[in-house]
Amino acid sequence: MTKDKFEKTHEQIDPQVQERQPGFENEMAPEPIYDDENYKGSGKLEGKVALITGGDSGIGRAVAIAYAKEGANIAIAYLDEHEDAEKTVAEAKAYGAQAYKFATDISQVENCHQLIVDVIAEFGQLNVLVNNAGKQFPQDDFLDISPEQLRETFETNIFSMFYLTQAALPHLSKGDSIINTSSVTAYRGSAGLIDYSSTKGAITSFTRSLSANISEQGIRVNSVAPGPIWTPLIPASFGAEKVDKQGGDTPMERRGQPSEVAPAYVYLASQDSSYVTGQAIHINGGDFISS
């Protein structure tokens, strides 16, 4: 990984707006950096099976690739971004992993339970659950947040974590790990993403509370709180001008890349973090966060 490689990622980009959440990586220009060629696996996750929601693209794809490099077998859950999911599976397999994709809407409890059934049927085990899928719908006027939007945001971002974790927990054992994707907005708020940042705050509390609840089982629960990362959610959420300026107001003056976030998920899934639970790792280009 070179400094210049990532400095160049905040250059002028072609105007782009996607019309649907959570977005398509294959339509982005430039393509996010999801595989850091200088990241070398060392067998940290050998023999483990990981389920990653939102694993077709963005941070989820980068995590899937990093886990594959570390020896894990991969299940990704996604909504209907089939082309993106196919690419993620192919990339993971190229690193020697078994990898399967499952198209489902995890905002619905019955789908979450079926997803876990399918993963266990395919792999025979589950060791790492990465609750990563999410949606956001910007609204500058708080009064414009409709009940329908509020419901969709909460069902996708936080209800699904309850559903999936409850379904997965009977299959997890001592040494296994649950990792939840939070956000910098959980800690500093967001005037235009009130419902989204509220779900991320809930995820932070969920992580802390669940970690205490199941600590005696030896299952660790942590979160990662990214800042402005170049994922499909960005052009699917904002206008072209805001997309172009993403990350420019951070101390590092650039957006981050999914490959810069993925190693935190490796750390939290591996025994390197055996004395870490209930915590959040902040990856946000230098913003100071008091948690």
UniProtKB/TrEMBL annotation:
Residues 1-13 have a biased composition (Basic and acidic residues). The keyword Oxidoreductase applies. Keywords: Oxidoreductase. Residues 1-38 are annotated as: Disordered. It holds the Pfam family adh_short_C2. Residues 48-233 form the Ketoreductase domain. The keyword Methyltransferase does not apply. InterPro entries: KR_dom, NAD(P)-bd_dom_sf, Sc_DH/Rdtase_CS, SDR_fam. This is SDR family oxidoreductase. It comes from Planococcus dechangensis.
